[in-house]
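Predict the assembly for these two chains.
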Amino acid sequence: MSTDPTATPLLDIAGLSVELLGRSGSRRILDTIDLSVQPTDILAIVGESGSGKSVTVSAVLGLLPANIMRVSAGSMRFDAEDLLHSRDTRRRVLRKDIAFITQNSLTSLNPVHTIGSQLLDMIAFRNGVGRRQALVDAGEWLVKVGIADVERVLSSYPHNLSGGMRQRVVIAMAISSRPRLLIADEPTTALDTITQLQVLNLLRDINTEFGTAIIVITHDFGVVSYLSKRVAVMHRGRIVEEGPTRRVLEAPKEAYSRSLIAAVPQLDLIS
Amino acid sequence: MTMAPSPLPAPNRRPVFGAGFRLGRTAVALVVIAFVVVAALLAPWVAPFDPLYGDGALRRLPPGTEGHLLGLDAQGRDVLSRLLWGARPSLIAGIVPVAAALAISLVLGLLAGYTSSFLGGLIMRVIDALFAFPMILFAIATVSLLGPGLTTIIVTITISLVPYMTRIVYGAVVGEIGKGYLETARLLGASRSRILFKELLPNVVSPSIVYATTLIGPMIGFSSGLSFLGLGIQPPNADWGRMTVEGVEVFAQGAPHVVLAAGIAIIVTSLAFNWLGSGLRDILDPQQG
């Protein structure tokens, strides 16, 4: 796999606009977004709250709340297949090729079922294997995300685990179908710094080991510089700047990018 | 979930009863409820006297009068026998409508909370309208259709409980909406019935059941109120509620045992159901205990 920009992108979003429907007419909240993700790429989307990061991802996943938001223009293609108009394609792609990690690991697991039961269901369904095979796979995936006492975790309920452990479980669930694209919406926001680092390392390992492309939504520039290869800066529903992470962080072209980066608190000690 | 023997141990179920106090409480509740239910079932055989036959010579005699363990009421009827027979309509009036309302409310609440905003809005507005209706109007309407009796009590209580319980279920559903596990299920194309019944229902059923069990006691009392108005159980038959009403009339005439016997029966039974409810929550909700 190559990151040659002329190759077919894995995910190709072109001219995507989303409208927020209101009583007094609609308002554009995403304005002609162009984004493409190459296989094995790691793209970070940064921006302040309300800039449209999550809406972009929701549009890709088909999770826009239908009664208040609508895609009004543009196209989305996954591996050259139309993701926007074909419900079947979207369902098939989402089942196997795109996985999603939400911000809050406590609510992304059902509190009344054990980890084992949920992980098994997920693996059995997404990979079309029997439960016995799924159980074996479940153990392997948990080991891969760095969980040692697999048996205890499988028989635990979500609230029995720490936030870091839960996020690992969620990641294990997400990558268990060997997706080609992993979308992570603020995967480390709810975690302490040490666990953050472990989760970021895990995501990086997944990228190198399986060649999984990753889109990570964040407002933490630590995550951006540590994890991503490219970064897109969003502001008020537009992408104001996009480029290689190093270049954008060191020499941002746009004023907004500069102010965003300048707003990161530094670890300066008061002298 | 059926699983073949696996290389990993079965999920460790928490012990069905929590330790110490909870264990004791739930066990006591179960014993009391079992006792009351058996007594009600066996009333024709274990009741020492005909509950409707009054001996004018023995009116208002206190507990311990020979042969009459709990004494006699204002018309010389055996209190113990009436208590045993009265357990039948009282238990039915307490349990059946609450169970029926729970089932109806779970369906309505899940539908209202999870389906389209139109259907959900329609259900909840109808529920709101029902809130504004006095229960007694339902009772009178039902009586005119079915005549007074236990069926009327059951129908009336069921209808009047549905709005409250649907609100509880709806609130629980709305609290879960938007959580990641539901979104994931939706993303993966899980069917609506799977999302409703496998993902959502287990999360809303335990608060609903706990609430429902706390209603059983009050509804035993409420059914007696309906009977008192002539809409439910008719004299000379009695449920526990009617017995308290009749007992109050002779309370100050040196016969407090009539109202005490029925009142204690109601209190003990209600309390047992409440304890059972909190015990059930411990069993149903993995986050407790």
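Chain A has a mean pLDDT of 88. The two ends of chain A are 50 Å apart (CA to CA).
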